Amino acid sequence: MIMKYKKINPILLPFEEMPGSCGFFNPYTIVNNGYGCDCPDCEEHELIFIKKDEENYLNTDYPQNILAMRMTKRNLRCNKRLAKKFVKKAKILISNKNNKKLKKYGMRRQGKCYSFSCPLAWQADRDDIEEYDPDFFESDFKPYPEDQPDNYVVQYREKL
């Protein structure tokens, strides 16, 4: 039996078109103006609260303190030794990439969709544009040698 494989080739596209072809794109989030990424390998992320189908930002520099308070039913201000213990556990939980444990405490990690931190595509430079779309390079970039592309990405896609 002969199996047919689809060829996967890199293509150049504007960043605005990439979310339409990405299966991890999440437009229903408050993070990054609706440009959310649910890919587990996303580098840029933010912690958010979850309240009955509603998301809220975690507006603090110390998310481990809020998570520590959610991990215990006791008042952490009363017992310094307990507070340090739970804050230490919260820091470990935040640094871990496991979203299931965060959801237990009403928080989750929401990725941000950026061209420079995407695990599925990379930000295109002049050489990428010249290689993957020579006609576009000739018309828009060759006459202006100092111009750098700022909103193009190279993504692998199936060619049927």
Write a structural description.
- This protein has 160 residues and is an alpha+beta fold.
- It has one domain (7-159).
- It contains six helices and eight strands; from the N terminus they run βαββββαααββααβ.
- The chain has helices spanning 18-21, 63-71, 80-95, 99-104, 126-132, 134-141; strands at 7-14, 25-26, 36-37, 45-51, 54-57, 107-112, 121-123, 152-159.
- The chain has a five-stranded antiparallel β-sheet. Strands 1-8-7 form a three-stranded antiparallel β-sheet, covered by helices on one side.
- Strand 4 (45-51) and strand 5 form a beta hairpin.
- It is elongated and about 70 Å long.
- The chain starts with 6 loop residues before the first strand and ends with a strand.
- The model has no long low-confidence stretch (mean pLDDT 77).
How far the N terminus sits from the C terminus, by CA atoms, comes to 20 Å
Shape from CA axes? Answer: elongated
Strand arrangement across the biggest beta sheet:
2-3-6-4-5
Query: What's the gyration radius in Å?
Result: 22 Å
Indicate the multimeric state: single chain
SSE string, helices as H and strands as E? EHEEEEHHHEEHHE
Number of strands: 8
| Total number of domains | 1
Quick summary:
By secondary structure, this protein is α+β, with helices and mostly antiparallel strands.
Mind sketching the topology for me?
Blueprint: E1 7-14, H1 18-21, E2 25-26, E3 36-37, E4 45-51, E5 54-57, H2 63-71, H3 80-95, H4 99-104, E6 107-112, E7 121-123, H5 126-132, H6 134-141, E8 152-159
Helix pairs in contact: 2-3, 5-6
Key terms:
elongated, 160 residues, alpha+beta, 6 helices, 8 strands, 3-stranded antiparallel sheet
